[in-house]
Amino acid sequence: MKALVYDGVETLGFRDVPDPVRRGEDALVRVEAVGICGSDMHAYLGHDARRPAPLILGHEAAGVIDGGPNDGTRVTINPLVHCGSCAACLAGRENLCPSRQIISMPPREGAFAQYITMPQSNLVPVPDHVPLDKAALAEPLAVSWHAVRLALAALHPQAERRALVIGGGAIGLAASLAFKAQGVTQVSIVEPNAQRRAFLRETCGETVLAEAEGSYPLVVDAVGYAATRATASALAAPGGVIAHVGLGEDSGGLDIRRMTLQEISFIGTYTYTAQDFRDTAEAIFDGRLGPLDWCQNRPLSQGAQAFDDLRNGRVAEPKIMLAPWS
Fold this sequence. Notes:
Elements: E1 2-8, E2 11-16, E3 26-35, H1 38-44, E4 55-56, E5 60-65, E6 74-77, E7 80-81, H2 87-90, E8 101-102, E9 115-119, E10 123-125, H3 132-135, H4 138-154, E11 162-166, H5 170-181, E12 186-190, H6 194-202, E13 207-209, E14 216-221, H7 226-235, E15 236-244, H8 256-261, E16 265-268, H9 274-285, E17 295-299, H10 303-311, E18 319-323
Parallel strand pairs: 11-12, 11-14, 12-13, 14-15, 15-16, 17-18
Antiparallel strand pairs: 1-2, 1-4, 3-5, 3-9, 3-18, 5-6, 6-10, 7-8
Helix pairs in contact: 4-5, 4-9
């Protein structure tokens, strides 16, 4: 099969690799759409020791089961594989499973390829009316759905439900959509890139700011740099909640004194539970997350150029979706 392989810092090769082998109850999935994630970009730049070269990246995918009893079923892929028997899994917090694995990290190759194998339990059937390139957005949308759900649960029930999202990439836009789907109608996104601001405002109908000021009961940091954490801790209202999703850099930025004196809650959020993933998929299928028409589509064979364009700020759309069979 053909795959896009991470060979080293800022180096990707599109070439033939061995077909994956289906084992046990796993399904073989013909990948039809796979998105480029910020974590893929971190690996591409050499910033993620968990993803050593050579490796097939990519974990935001949808496709069609090839062979077996469910042959031909259209599915979106939950890439987080868990044990199912530890305390975290039994509590429905599969994302905290100590033995969790995610495709695009060893030992599991990713979905920038024509085929991938996955446990049947990680596959959510997709209705015929939903295009697979939109179904592949379940993964990044679930990340934000999970963060928003936790933030709302931590907010005092009498607090104003108004939100600021820092960062207008796919996770930031998804957080805004998740807030609206979960009942928060006043949402602003702060995004420094003028081209992306214009796209979010004109194509997605979002309220977008170049800089934010004032205070917000709910803040999502979808970037995760020291500067964005500083913004989050400065703009969170007294008694407010910061949900931290981005993994841009490891430390710095938080105003711990202000957060302590103003009782601002800080929640680190990682991926999603299996239920969050299913809930997000259902929200895609029934239209609660909008038309999802904000992706740019390219063939997987042009993946290296897509990464370079993202690296150099030449893409206005929040997401590039790659098609392995184009």
